[in-house]
Design goal:
This protein is an alpha/beta fold and 472 residues long. Helices cover 44% and strands 13% of the residues. It has an 8-stranded mixed beta sheet with strand order 3-2-1-4-5-6-7-8, sandwiched between helices. Strands 11-10-9-12-13-14 form a 6-stranded parallel beta sheet, with helices on both faces. Bound molecules: nicotinamide-adenine-dinucleotide and uridine-5'-diphosphate-glucose. Uridine-5'-diphosphate-glucose (UPG) binds next to helix 9.
């Protein structure tokens, strides 16, 4: 029976860092080394100021760093020492070439796999942790097998990660399930059991699911597609609510009480963001197209189309409410991260909204409690967002508080559901006093009590709610 004593994780990002830190925290008998090509990222992991913000992460890392948890740029040494290697590198949507805008870019997975093949001097269990298209493990196997000898044998497992940002540590300490796929060969099953033993250091055995490799790979894309589909479904309903006077919170609550549906992931919003949902659905759409299943591709594509529609619909409502023009008006954007409790801005709805505001020549003041100004400028300078540096300097202001952002603004737009924007935490009377009148507030997260803010004097518009239609 294989017993894992030394683990290497290639990729010290949002997944590799927290996942393997929790693994080390819960398994003092295993040495865990997390490696990355980025010197800056590794230096940050070795400092007091970790490179990602995630509640509870500091405690976990500081408890075992230097004991059985190490961060390093020496990829080769860590590969050579390890019995088991997680490949947890980025798999972004391809920007150019075949499948551009749809397929996952597997260049990082391939280069990490080639590195393992080149430098390994003993048998390894290689674990695909990155989210990848179904059958990627086959390509990894081909690369590794081409380099295996009688002394060096490689087994490949699929172990997709289901953590959500903002709750990563909670999710990792107490996962709904851990999924491990393997080739159903004697050696594949032995490797699978070795990884089961690692997880059962802290995860109850009944929550560790073992499947074949391809089921495991596809289940990851499937889970994300279904979660995003629920958001697009409730967002589609939010448009009907606004037109009829039905209240999207009430509809979600009533539907969610059906135990067959469940209440989670039914919060209407300005649109889902994050590095995963859109990327993984597009990945599934591409896979379906490649498999000559156009109806299946169109079905999943609609989840993304609805998400884009929701963002456009929100912007259109803002412009029409502000008397059909926002030129030179000041819009305060509260929140830039793609959800609360993270500093991650990848695919954040805020980026799309701000791009549209700037195209209408509005002035935009942004406040987010966890996103650095430098990151905001970087995101807005991406091709196709804010066209010129001059426009960026002239039209964008990064603020240190919600009050500063809202000062003299025509409208406040709540984009991220940070707790500090709630009406029992932020002094909305103070915000109102400082704004131009009429003072408009657009709640893209169903975060505030609209009636309370209307009493203060705000003109409030909330996704999925329309008081006028309701009373008509
Ligand atoms: N972010 C999430 O919440 C989340 C959750 C579940 C799954 N995933 C999946 O996990 C994977 C990683 O996502 P992430 O958010 O951690 O990405 P990330 O960009 O934060 O981190 C990836 C890291 O891998 C490093 N890297 C790339 N190629 C390398 C190589 N050859 N050798 C060493 N280091 C290398 C990069 O420098 C980077 O630091 C993706 O496939 C993603 O879809 C992400
Ligand atoms: O009811 C909801 C729930 C979420 N969101 C939005 O959806 C996006 C994604 O949120 P969430 O799923 O909580 O965060 P992620 O970190 O993107 O996590 C998803 O993507 C990860 C990467 O694959 C998976 O591991 C997780 O299981 C999956 O939840 C965010 O913009 C949320 O604001 C809504 O609008 N309404």
């Amino acid at each position: 029976m294989t017993v894992v004593k030394n683990i290497c994780c290639i990729g010290a990002g949002y997944v590799g860092g927290p996942t393997c830190a929790v693994l080390a925290y819960k398994s003092p008998d295993i040495k865990v080394t997390i490696v990355d090509l980025s010197e800056a990222r590794i230096a940050a992991w070795n400092s007091d100021n970790l490179p990602i913000y995630e509640p509870g992460l500091d405690e976990v890392v500081f408890a075992c760093r230097g004991k059985n948890l190490f961060f390093s740029t020496d990829v080769d040494a860590a590969i050579q020492e390890a019995d088991l290697i997680f490949v947890s590198v980025n798999t972004p949507t391809k920007k150019s070439g075949m499948g551009a805008g749809m397929a996952a870019d597997l260049a990082y997975v391939e280069s990490a796999t080639r590195r393992i093949a080149e430098v390994a001097k003993s048998p390894k269990i290689v674990v695909e942790k990155s989210t990848v298209p179904c059958r990627t493990a086959q390509s990894m196997r081909t690369i590794l097998e081409a380099n295996s000898t009688s002394e060096i044998h490689f087994d490949i497992l699929s172990n997709p990660e289901f953590l959500a940002e903002g709750t990563a540590i909670k999710d990792l300490l107490n996962p709904d399930r851990v999924l491990i796929g393997a080739l159903q060969t004697e050696s594949g099953i032995e490797a699978q059991n070795a990884l089961v033993d690692v997880y059962t250091h802290w995860v109850p055995k009944e929550r560790v699911i073992t499947t074949n490799l391809w089921s495991s790979e596809l289940s990851k894309l499937a889970a994300n597609a279904m979660l995003a589909q629920r958001i697009s479904s409730i967002n589609a309903l939010s448009a009907i609510c606004e037109a009829t006077g039905a209240d999207v919170d009430e509809v979600a609550f009533a539907c969610g009480k059906d135990t067959r549906l469940g209440s989670k992931f039914l919060k209407a919003s300005v649109g889902f963001g994050g590095s995963c949902f859109q990327k993984d659905i597009l990945n599934l759409v591409y896979l379906s197209t490649q498999l000559n299943l156009p109806e299946v591709a169109a079905y999943w594509q609609q989840v993304v189309i609805m998400n884009e529609y929701q963002k456009k619909r929100f912007v259109r409502n803002i412009i029409s409410t502000l008397f059909n023009t926002i030129t030179n008006k000041k819009i305060a954007v509260l929140g830039f991260a793609f959800k609360k409790d993270t500093g991650d801005t990848r695919e954040s709805a805020a980026i799309t909204l701000i791009k549209d505001f700037i195209q209408e020549n509005a002035r935009v003041a942004i406040y987010d409690p966890k996103v650095e100004a430098e990151q905001i400028y970087m995101d807005l300078s991406e091709p196709g967002v804010v066209d010129t540096q001059k426009q960026l300097e002239k039209n964008i202001q990064i603020c240190q508080s919600a009050y500063e952002a809202a000062d003299d603004a025509d409208a406040v737009v709540i984009v991220t559901e940070w707790d500090e924007f709630r009406d029992d935490q932020l002094d909305y009377e103070k915000i109102y006093a400082g704004m131009k009148k009429p003072a408009f507030l657009f709640d893209g997260r169903l975060l505030v009590n609209a009636a309370k803010l209307r009493q203060i004097g705000f003109k409030v518009s909330v996704i999925g709610k329309n008081e006028l239609a309701g009373t008509a």
